[in-house]
Amino acid sequence: MGGSRTRVWIAGRGVVLDAPAVPFPDARIVHPIQRGAIVDVPATARMLDRLLGDHMPRRARPLVVVTTPVLHGTAYREQARAVVRVLRPRAVLTVPTARAVALAADADPGRPLLVADIGARLSEVVLLVGGAVVDARSTALGTGDLVDADDCAELSEAVVAMITSMVRQDRTAVTATALKRGALLAGGGALHPGLVPRLVAGLRAPMTTVREPHTAALRGAAGLLRSAHAHPAVRATSRTGCGPMSS
C-alpha cells in the first residue's frame, strides 16, 4: 500500500491488483496514504475492500503480508493491521519494504546490503545485515515531486546524502563495505532513466537495479507469504480456526 499505487498478490493467482491508491470519490481525504503514512485508516480500509471485493472469496480468512516503510515504525504497522482487518485475516505479518526487496532480488543474506527504495513520494535507504535492519534514512521526496520529469537532480542528491551520512556515521565500516559491493535500487523511481547514472557518479559506487523494481517489494512479500503458509504455526491456526495473530 503506497501513496501512489496499491498492489496485491494472491497465492495461486499472482498479481491481481495494481491500481491508484485513491478511495471513493466522495471521501474526505483524496489520498488516504501520503508519503508512506496512513493518514485516514477508515478510508484506506474502504479503498482496500472496494479494490479487492471481486478478488476475495466471501468466506476467506487469508494470511496477509504487508510491506512497511522502516522508519514509520510501530504506529504504521498498527495502522496497517487495522486497515487489513477489513479482509478478515487469520494472521497479519508485516515486513520492512527493504527486506522484501532483498528477498525478491535473491540477495545473499550473509552479506551486508544497502537497499535504496525510490517511491513516488517517499524514498528510503536501508542497511541490512543478516537480513535485519541495522540503519535507515528516509526523505519525503520521490519521483512524484519532480517538476521536470527529465530532471532528477534533487532526488538523486537526496539519496546520495542519505547514503553518505550512513557511511560517515558508521564506525564499523559495514555500510562502506556494502556500498563498495553495490547497492540495490528498487521502487518505481528506479525506472527513471537519469537516476542511476547520477547515483553512481555521486557515490562513486555501483548500483544494481532490481528486476521490475516497481514490483520488487510485492514479489518479496509473495515469497514470504509462500513460506509462511508452510509454517507449522500458521497451519495450526488454519486447522483450529483461531483468531488473527500479528508479527
Quick recap:
This protein has 247 residues and is of the alpha/beta class. It contains eight helices and twelve strands. Helix 1 (41-52) packs across helix 2, helix 3 (97-104) packs across helix 7 (216-229) and helix 4 (153-169) runs parallel beside helix 6 (195-203).
Distance between the termini: 18 Å
Number of helices: 8
Number of domains: 2
Helix vs. strand class: alpha/beta
Strand numbers in spatial order across the main sheet: 9-8-7-10-11
- State the fourth-level CATH superfamily of the largest domain: ATPase, nucleotide binding domain
Q: If you had to describe this structure to a student in words, what would you say it looks like?
A:
- This protein is of the alpha/beta class and about 250 residues long.
- It has 2 domains: about 5-100 and about 215-245, 2-Layer Sandwich (Nucleotidyltransferase, domain 5); about 110-210, ATPase, nucleotide binding domain (Nucleotidyltransferase, domain 5), CATH 3.30.420.40.
- Helices cover about 35% and strands about 25% of the residues.
- The strands form 4 sheets. Strands 9-8-7-10-11 form a 5-stranded mixed sheet, sandwiched between helices. Strands 5-6-12 form a 3-stranded parallel sheet, sandwiched between helices.
- Strand 7 (about 115-120) and strand 8 (about 125-130) form a beta hairpin.
- Helix 1 (about 40-50) packs across helix 2, helix 3 crosses helix 7 (about 215-230) and helix 4 (about 155-170) packs parallel to helix 6.
- It is globular.
